[in-house]
Amino acid sequence: MNLQQQLEQRSGEICELCSSVQNLKVYSIQPETDDPLQHHILVCETCEEQLMDPEKNDPNHWRCLNDSIWSEHRPVKVIAWRKLNELKSEAWPMDLLNMMYMDDEDLAYAQAGNTIEASAVVHKDCNGVVLQAGDSVVLIKDLKVKGSSMVAKQGTAVRRISLDHENEKFIEGKVDGQTIVIITDYVKKI
Q: Are the CB atoms for 110 and 82 separated by under 8 Å?
């Protein structure tokens, strides 16, 4: 039995990430191990394309990881962990990461091949405390929202923030039901 057949048998002939049955392919996970079944998964064309080119990521497609994080197979959990970490700025992946269980060995393997530069852009509040996607902050001064007559008042709590990947000074959050960009100099982590 070749590797693809073994993976099809393991997965029940569905994508191990999103459960699609269309255009299934073998995807290799780095770093490689002695057992090919421990560093390969069966994925559909859509998952493969987004795994190979993060620029093509559709965050909503990856909500399927809600089921994949519970897989009994190490390579599936590893890819789910890596992809959720890649999407942390979306806020919802943090909930899945917090629910996910990985033993120390699997977590070390997932981190070993993680290509995301976590330290590339670091967001800090007014006190220098590092902010992460999903954190809650409070405004330390009144802020006029550009392009509207709205003023975000000092003391307003902003929950489940998102981070800007390109600018360490910008975060996004909802204030009075409206998503706004906030400069990190004017927030304090709760």
A: yes
Q: What is the pLDDT of residue 139?
A: 96
Alpha helices in 38-112 (DSSP H): 45-52, 65-68, 74-86, 92-99, 104-112
Higher pLDDT, 91 or 79: 79
Signed CA dihedral, 164, 165, 167, 168: sign only: positive
Tokens coding 30: 């780095």
* Alpha carbon distance 166, 137 (integer Å): 20
* Long-range CB pairs of 61-65, under 8 A, 24+ apart, other chains included: 61/18, 62/87, 62/93, 63/92, 64/17, 64/18, 64/19, 65/17, 65/93, 65/96
Q: Which residue has the tokens 């519970």?
A: 70
